[in-house]
Write a structure and sequence with these properties.
Elements lengths: L1 H21 L13 H10 L7 E5 L5 H10 L2 E5 L3 H13 L6 E4 L13 E4 L3 H14 L5 E5 L10 E3 L8 E5 L22 E3 L2 E3 L1
Parallel strand pairs: 1-2, 1-4, 2-3, 4-5
Antiparallel strand pairs: 5-7, 6-7, 8-9
The structure holds S-adenosylmethionine (SAM).
The site of S-adenosylmethionine has 24 residues, from helix 3.
Length: about 210
Amino acid sequence: MFVLFVLLLIIVLIIFYFYAIYFGLFFGGPFIPVSKRDIKHLAKVFNFKKEDVVYELGSGDARILIYLARKYKIKSVGIEINFLLSFWSKLKIKFLGLDKFIKIKRKSFFQENLEEADVIICYLMPKAMKNLREKFIQELKPGTKIISFSFSIPDWKPIIVDKPSKKDKTIYIYEVGKTRTKNKSKIKNQNACLPVGRDIGHLFIN
Ligand SMILES: C[S@@+](CC[C@H](N)C(=O)[O-])C[C@H]1O[C@@H](n2cnc3c(N)ncnc32)[C@H](O)[C@@H]1O
């Protein structure tokens, strides 16, 4: 009886594990969280301000938003489709007393209006970045920054691309109003299409 119980427990844990990691794969990307090093890299490369309203698309276990709330007292919304991850995030946030800063919504980010955002953070698969492009054009106000780990937005020119070393993920930063696309005719919001050009060391500002 005891052996059966342990076996059942192991099976349940395995199911939980695979659900937590791979469920998001079908909607935008699996759960592969950024490291502490990546978060520190982000804080170096992007000038976060207390008044920024940050939206994280696919917030995972909310580690980035928790860091931003603790360090800058930033208010944020995390959108996470995976029930386990959103539940775990809410638990951590409550426990840390950060619920007045961070709100977690369990839903697909495709179903969330993003017009309130000053900063968008994402770490998603290339296909999701492509699908989000039209949503960004429709909903984001001029000046909104989009930060993406590892994957760029196809056809858009970032204002910053940063990868200081091999160990670091590439960080792409876009700004609505300064982000050029090769395919201007498809863009309804022309705010999304202004080019510039400058190069400062490993930071490349277009
Ligand atoms: C690569 S992980 C990044 C997690 C977190 N942003 C981080 O950097 O630590 C991608 C996350 O997006 C979530 N996700 C994928 N598609 C989604 C969708 N359509 N709506 C909401 N969350 C989604 C996954 O469940 C996963 O937690």
